[in-house]
Amino acid sequence: MNLILFGPPAAGKGTQAKRLVDTRGMVQLSTGDMLRAAIASGSELGLKVKDVLARGDLVTDEIVIALIEARLPEAEAAGGAIFDGFPRTVAQAEALDAMLAGRGRQIDRVVRLCVDDEALTARIGKRFAEQGRADDNPDTFRERLAVYNRNTAPLLPYYQAQGKLVEIDGMGSIDQVSEALDAALA
């Protein structure tokens, strides 16, 4: 099974993905993790990524797709992938569909963790006050949330038209969200 998890920053995608890795043996394909790993590897692609980021530019779709494609055999051997942070645009979604189709595969389910933006912002503000994590700064978080909402919106109709989109309440406890996710994947 190939799954895309959608949800804003701090919605619990990482927590749920790790649980699916543990319980179902799937491979989590997090683009952020893959970019950091590519740089650390010192590979040709890693050096290219490092150079792009050092210039302050965004990593191109071509590079991100190459990173995803390189990990697909591992995901296929494990029985499926959890795409986390990818795709972010309709063009990336189309490229992913084409890449998977070329391998006789497809995205089976797209799960959107629906959260209340204000409650999420309050949760992050509390975590920032308690832990001081720089990425939890409430002003920075609100901008990250706005970017997510703006960029992800066009993807929802894309997957809804394919009959793959399922929305679940992401505001419950970890266990409640896990149960709803398991039901969505059944």
TrEMBL record:
What keywords are assigned to this protein?
ATP-binding, Cytoplasm, Kinase, Nucleotide biosynthesis, Nucleotide-binding, Transferase
Query: Which PROSITE patterns does the UniProt record give?
Result: ADENYLATE_KINASE
Q: List the EC numbers from the record.
A: 2.7.4.3
Annotated region NMP: the residues are 30-59
Name the positions where ATP binds. Answer: 10-15, 127, 172
Q: Where in the cell is it found?
A: Cytoplasm
Residue numbers binding AMP: 31, 36, 57-59, 85-88, 92, 133, 144
Q: How does it assemble?
A: Monomer.
Q: Which PANTHER family match?
A: NUCLEOTIDE KINASE
User: What name goes with this protein?
Assistant: Adenylate kinase
Could you tell me which species this protein originates from?
Brevundimonas viscosa
